[in-house]
Amino acid sequence: MSRAALLVLADGRFPAGGHAHSGGAEEAVRTGRITDAASLESFCRGRLHTAGLVAAALAAAAALGCDPAALDAAADARTPSPALRTAARRLGRQLMRAARATWPGLELDAVAREFPRGVHQPVVLGLAARAAGLGAADAAHCAVYESVGGPATATVRLLSLDPFDATAVLARLAPEMDRTADTAVSAAHRVRKGGPDELPAASAPLLEIGAEAHAARPVRLFAS
Amino acid sequence: MHLDHSLPLPAPAVGADAHRPGGARRALRVGLGGPVGSGKTATVAALCRVLRDELSLAVVTNDIYTREDAEFLLREAVLPPERITAVETGACPHTAIRDDISANLEAVEDLEDAVGPLDLVLVESGGDNLTATFSRGLVDAQIFVIDVAGGDDIPRKGGPGVTTADLLVVNKTDLAPYVGSDLARMAADAKAARAELPVVLQSLRSEEGVRDVADWIRARVAAWTA
Ligand SMILES: Nc1nc2c(ncn2[C@@H]2O[C@H](COP(=O)(O)OP(=O)(O)OP(=O)(O)O)[C@@H](O)[C@H]2O)c(=O)[nH]1
Ligand SMILES: [Mg+2]
């Protein structure tokens, strides 16, 4: 297992399309739920323990070699908003391209061939981790970090928030990210025996509703 | 050994691959970048009108926070709607054309799948600064569009767009008398900054319009398909 490979995959500059998405932060800013560093932290904490936890468990299960098609269906069932499902598949397809170019391998090729329109991004993240020689815990950590890193970066742009304050939010959430990743990895191990129903199904209704409202807006900076 | 060709191959992982999954040559991709309001969309529209009867073409726009460029092209009916796609760039137009080209590559490939085979795809960047250039993984050639009203010292200031683009277009020459821009100086500075690389001075309000740029594109397409 290579710690450096984990940094490559987790780097916000990894070219997989994430920069155009705010993880729901744009809608939260627009509706006044994120106004400063404190409310950004609350938003990120909520996202971490809901969408972040589910994404991490999906990624960890995929990294363990669970069936991507079953995980993709489980992700659908845990994502009520059609706009979010579309965004997750689009990001999954983009990550698949980047991962195949970065860590070429037959397994990624096979999933790309089977799902030309993409599978949910966390599933691809787990497969990418596998291709990079990483494990379930690495994949889960990438997923939880992404679940809060995306909104934090987007909020810096949307509110002209002080970037040091935004980064401090992420640092304060680090212990919670670790615990969430651990929970996700445990669930992923249960999925190996018990199937995808063992995946957590935590959800944040406001994230789902916000994603639908955001998708309908004619003027927006971020794709989701 | 017999290779099994019955399985459909997945799309090549690398964007710069010159071939489609089936093995056919993909469309030539030309990027148009440059500062806000210099005339990128107007140039794309004019190119579509001139070239659409001789080439199979499509357009990807990168709007910053609206779909205005795509909507302008749709309103002007320069191409059928299924040949125009808008990509959202998350507040960073240069990232989407240079550092992380995923969404644009996907848009280009989806267009080829949906309405292909295509000879040419034009990719318009959202208006940006003088350092914004396209990745070679996304486009085969790039045009940098500046205008005379943005200041006649821009060719002298240089920057990657002005100095390295495959074609530099100095647009809106009709406005030069009104904004006090010295066209001869702009042309001389551009030549000095670009050595052998070509420069076109154009006014889309004139009779010739986009003619020189269209000729340049024709030559690129001919070389691409040769
Ligand atoms: N006078 C004059 N106006 C022009 C010319 N070319 C474009 N324009 C006008 O300049 C304005 C901006 O043109 P666009 O084509 O929208 O510029 P753009 O580079 O696509 O702008 P962004 O996408 O917003 O960066 C429009 O009002 C055009 O009609 C020209 O050659 N002469
Ligand atoms: Mg434009």
From TrEMBL, chain A:
<keyword id="KW-0143">Chaperone</keyword>
<protein>
    <recommendedName>
        <fullName>Urease accessory protein UreF</fullName>
    </recommendedName>
</protein>
<comment type="subunit">
    <text>UreD, UreF and UreG form a complex that acts as a GTP-hydrolysis-dependent molecular chaperone, activating the urease apoprotein by helping to assemble the nickel containing metallocenter of UreC. The UreE protein probably delivers the nickel.</text>
</comment>
<dbReference type="Pfam" id="PF01730">
    <property type="entry name" value="UreF"/>
</dbReference>
<comment type="function">
    <text>Required for maturation of urease via the functional incorporation of the urease nickel metallocenter.</text>
</comment>
<comment type="similarity">
    <text>Belongs to the UreF family.</text>
</comment>
<dbReference type="InterPro" id="IPR038277">
    <property type="entry name" value="UreF_sf"/>
</dbReference>
<keyword id="KW-0996">Nickel insertion</keyword>
<keyword id="KW-0963">Cytoplasm</keyword>
<dbReference type="InterPro" id="IPR002639">
    <property type="entry name" value="UreF"/>
</dbReference>
Automatic annotation (TrEMBL), chain B:
<feature type="domain" description="CobW/HypB/UreG nucleotide-binding">
    <location>
        <begin position="30"/>
        <end position="200"/>
    </location>
</feature>
<dbReference type="Pfam" id="PF02492">
    <property type="entry name" value="cobW"/>
</dbReference>
<feature type="region of interest" description="Disordered">
    <location>
        <begin position="1"/>
        <end position="20"/>
    </location>
</feature>
<keyword id="KW-0996">Nickel insertion</keyword>
<comment type="subunit">
    <text>Homodimer. UreD, UreF and UreG form a complex that acts as a GTP-hydrolysis-dependent molecular chaperone, activating the urease apoprotein by helping to assemble the nickel containing metallocenter of UreC. The UreE protein probably delivers the nickel.</text>
</comment>
<protein>
    <recommendedName>
        <fullName>Urease accessory protein UreG</fullName>
    </recommendedName>
</protein>
<dbReference type="InterPro" id="IPR004400">
    <property type="entry name" value="UreG"/>
</dbReference>
<dbReference type="InterPro" id="IPR027417">
    <property type="entry name" value="P-loop_NTPase"/>
</dbReference>
<keyword id="KW-0963">Cytoplasm</keyword>
<dbReference type="InterPro" id="IPR003495">
    <property type="entry name" value="CobW/HypB/UreG_nucleotide-bd"/>
</dbReference>
<feature type="binding site">
    <location>
        <begin position="34"/>
        <end position="41"/>
    </location>
    <ligand>
        <name>GTP</name>
    </ligand>
</feature>
<keyword id="KW-0342">GTP-binding</keyword>
<comment type="function">
    <text>Facilitates the functional incorporation of the urease nickel metallocenter. This process requires GTP hydrolysis, probably effectuated by UreG.</text>
</comment>
<keyword id="KW-0143">Chaperone</keyword>
<keyword id="KW-0547">Nucleotide-binding</keyword>
<comment type="similarity">
    <text>Belongs to the SIMIBI class G3E GTPase family. UreG subfamily.</text>
</comment>
